[in-house]
Design brief:
Largest sheet of chain A: 2 strands, antiparallel
CATH class of chain A: Mainly Alpha
Structural class of chain B: alpha/beta
Structural class of chain A: mainly alpha
Largest sheet of chain B: 8 strands, mixed
CATH superfamily of chain A: BFD-like [2Fe-2S]-binding domain
Shape of chain B: globular
Number of domains of chain A: 1
Strand content of chain A: 5-15%
Mean pLDDT of chain A: 92
Low-confidence stretches of chain B: none
Helix content of chain A: 40-55%
Order of helices and strands of chain A: EEHHHEH
Number of strands of chain B: 19
Number of helices of chain A: 4
Number of helices of chain B: 9
Strand order of the largest sheet of chain B: 5-6-4-14-15-16-13-17
Distance between the termini of chain A: 58 Å
Strand order of the largest sheet of chain A: 1-2
Distance between the termini of chain B: 41 Å
Oligomer: heterodimer
CATH class of the largest domain in chain B: Alpha Beta
Radius of gyration of chain A: 17 Å
CATH architecture of chain A: Orthogonal Bundle
Mean pLDDT of chain B: 96
CATH superfamily of the largest domain in chain B: FAD/NAD(P)-binding domain
Chain lengths: ~90, ~375
């Protein structure tokens, strides 16, 4: 397996190699790691990558996976266009 | 933690961009024995939630000087801190919607130019050259400063914290100041949830929590926190580099180097610490955005979040040592523009602490100005 070719965050194009390097460099808090690499900040909202990165953080920190806090979840749950927001608010005004 | 420090020359409360940059500027001036207390992770407060803009177009001379000095620092900060902070000078386009605003902007530009900020008026045609998709019906005139721009707040914060650590400062995450100890009108220590630290100097750089932290020292300062919401879109190919803002609408938006658009708008809010996102805000924002940039109607919203503006009654920060408590320094109440003026603010606070004359005279920004009625009102706040 070639770590520089294994993409973990598909939205932001981040590999397992970059993630492990950042963790080893001290970004061991999930919120800080996210802000440093942009992992989980793409259109999918981290659905694919966050569980995989959580496991990497758990291994590095020597913790059970569920003791590694996940970053805050933020709306919207699915990407949405401005026009669809505008249409929904017009509908309510009537 | 067994090696938690029992003494420190300086304790800084808050690991955001303000606390981290002050720590770094102190190490540059020979102060090594510094402890930074961060109650959560680095950039967990206002820094990690800010709109990433760097503006010099202010209406108050003090803010102009702090902002200009900060831009001068931002220009070489990637090199100085050996960390790419993604600083880009794509300018700020400030929209005027009526003749009253044009008159205010005339005064602002005169002031800005007098301290070396290269801002100027642009007509609708030039505004469209700077920001091609802008709706020119939505404003009458605009001002533009080409050296304003963008920096990555997370990376600037990490860069300062790491440079401070290299200089000897110790940064403690998930460590909270619980009490500030005083004797005979001076600081003697800080009680934390990891132990007591003896010190004669405490810097309050706690952003949204500035009022509460000052209270730990028995000091009342007139700061309060107010929710402000932002959002970020999917990334697109570069469309324009300028930030577009309107004080009338309270809106700001910019396509950041990543390609996504970061944008926000202010709403009337009660002072409190609630920073949750709301769909009502999203609907309000969408209407105002599509008035200025209808071309963005099919752009997809990826994420919405909230953060705090820590405000003062005159929208200018409180900087410097408190008159009634020796060794207690405030760097708080930035009212929504702390990130962009942090570099020069940090220089001035560090200079005060080591007994040098600050590069910018920040004495009018003392906490005492409110009790003396010497307010320094900033007219140009956005978001």
């Amino acid at each position: 397996m070639n770590d520089e070719k294994i993409i973990i965050c598909r939205c932001e194009d981040i590999t397992i190699e970059e993630i492990r390097a950042a963790i080893a460099d001290g970004y061991t808090d999930f919120e800080e790691l996210k802000r440093f690499l942009r992992v989980g900040m793409g259109p999918c909202g981290g659905r694919t990558c966050l569980p995989l990165i959580r496991r990497e953080l758990a291994i590095f920190r020597g913790l059970p996976v569920d003791e590694v806090a996940l970053p805050a979840k933020r709306p919207p749950t699915q990407v949405t266009t401005f026009s669809s927001v505008a249409i929904s608010s017009e509908g309510e005004a009537k | 933690m067994t090696d938690f420090p029992k003494t420190a020359e300086v304790v800084i409360i808050g690991g955001g961009v303000v606390g981290a940059s002050i720590a770094y500027e102190l190490t540059k001036r020979g102060v090594k024995d510094i402890v930074v207390l961060e109650k959560s992770y680095i950039s967990s407060g206002s820094t990690g939630r800010c709109g990433a803009g760097v503006r010099q177009q202010w209406g108050l001379e003090m803010n102009c000087r702090l902002a200009k000095g900060s831009v001068d620092i931002f220009e070489q900060l990637t090199e100085e801190l050996d960390y790419d902070i993604e600083f880009r000078q794509g300018g700020y386009l400030v929209l005027a919607h009526n003749s009253t605003q044009v008159k205010q902007f005339e005064r602002n530009i005169k002031l800005q130019n007098s301290v070396g900020i290269p801002s100027r008026f642009v007509d609708k045609d030039e505004a469209r050259e700077i920001c091609p998709p802008i709706n020119t019906e939505a404003f009458v005139k605009a001002t533009y400063c080409p050296t304003d721009g963008h920096a990555n707040p997370f990376k600037t914060n990490f860069a300062y914290a790491r440079a401070a650590e290299r200089g000897g400062a110790r940064v403690y995450r998930y460590t909270e100041a619980k009490d500030i100890l005083t004797e005979n009108g001076r600081i003697v220590g800080v009680e934390t949830d990891k132990g007591r630290i003896s010190t004669n100097i405490v810097v309050n750089a706690s952003g949204p929590w500035s009022h509460e932290v000052a209270k730990l020292a028995g000091i009342e300062i007139p700061t309060f926190s107010e929710r402000h919401q932002c959002l970020v879109s999917e990334p697109l190919e570069p469309m324009f580099e300028t930030m577009v803002i309107s004080f009338q609408k309270g809106i700001y938006l910019q396509q950041v180097p990543h390609g996504s658009f970061v944008m926000g708008i202010g709403e009337v809010e009660e002072p409190n610490h609630n920073i949750r996102s709301t769909w009502q805000w999203l609907e309000f924002f969408t209407g105002e955005l599509l008035d200025i940039l209808p071309v963005l109607k099919d752009l997809r919203i990826v994420r919405q979040w909230g953060g705090s503006y820590n405000k003062t009654p005159d929208a200018a920060p409180i900087l410097g040592e408190h008159e009634q408590l020796a060794g207690f320094y405030n760097a708080v109440g930035f009212s929504g523009h702390g990130f962009m003026i942090a570099p020069m603010t940090a220089v001035c606070i560090a200079q005060l602490i080591v007994g040098e004359k600050p590069t910018v005279d920040i004495s009018p920004l003392s906490a005492e100005r409110f009790s003396k009625g010497e307010l320094v009102v900033e007219p140009s706040v956005v978001g």
